[in-house]
Amino acid sequence: MKHLLSKLKFNPDLGLDLNKLNYTIVNKDFLYTEDSDLIFYPQKCNEIQDLQPFLDNLYSKINKEVFLVLTFETYRGRIRRYKTKHSRFFSFIRFLFDFLFLRVLLRMFPFKYLVYYLSKKKLIILSKAEGLGRMAFAGFEILDSTSHENQIFVLLKKSIIKNETKPSYGPLFKMERLGKNGKKIKVYKFRTMHPYAEFIQQYMLKLNGYSKTGKLKNDFRITSWGKFLRKYWLDELPQLINVIKGEMKLVGIRPVSEVYYNDLPIEVQRMRIKHKPGCIPPYIAFNYKTKKEMIVKAEVDYMKMREKKTFLYDFGLVFKSLYYIFFKKQRGS
Q1: For 107-129, what is the mean pLDDT?
Q2: Pairing between strand 140-148 and 151-158?
Q3: How far is CA 27 from CA 41, 99, 113, 129, 150, in A?
């Protein structure tokens, strides 16, 4: 295990040399000496009985100054492992069974209780986003992650603030966003990301930053079917619930997270909190390019115009947006 630990290549900018740290390799009892600088738990998280309670227990035991390394196998890594031992056809059949039995049915009532019993409460099929998200949800700060032999190894430290938001699994979920006057609202969407993905937004921002469209770059949290839903704006349909509740309108500035809001210029922030967010963003109605600066410009132009116009102006923008979406093939990202 010491030989394995020495092979892990974390970001050199962290200034950590694992070989020079006083580390301890621990078992399920999680016993380590107080002078340890780093703790390595070699068992894959996929195989840990009751994973989330286990991570919560780690959080309560570990010292905030100590580094922690955990590992798990992603479903893509699982496929690669199958392919090294079996034919491509058998590997596909085996993974399809694992996916349907351990990943889909495990989340559904009442099957989840049966699967939970038959799988002996372990062997979880994890995506990279869910594996990292579960650790972040338990209260750990993700410093870096690296791949080795089809497994993900994660370097962690205990965070000061433990996350209290409950994760969601279903196809419909709510995101916390900023509404009018800075009020926090729950925006409804169809799920396009892996479970627990919402808890690693800060890590993703630090890792890759924003793309030209103003969204997170190289966002591996999005599922393959999620990309399809986003492309055709289908994931936005449940926001009509927010419209009915009076929290949003059909067209208007995007409902953004507090993290994104804080990255905007102060003058844009001051303008934003005066307006109710909308389902259809102004850059669609104005047929602007999907670059961050153009998206922000469209919102500023809209807010300035909206102060001079009545609600009929919004009504006209809705039809313009539908025209660009259906006839000019304006796509989401």
Answers
A1: 63
A2: antiparallel
A3: 7, 28, 28, 25, 22
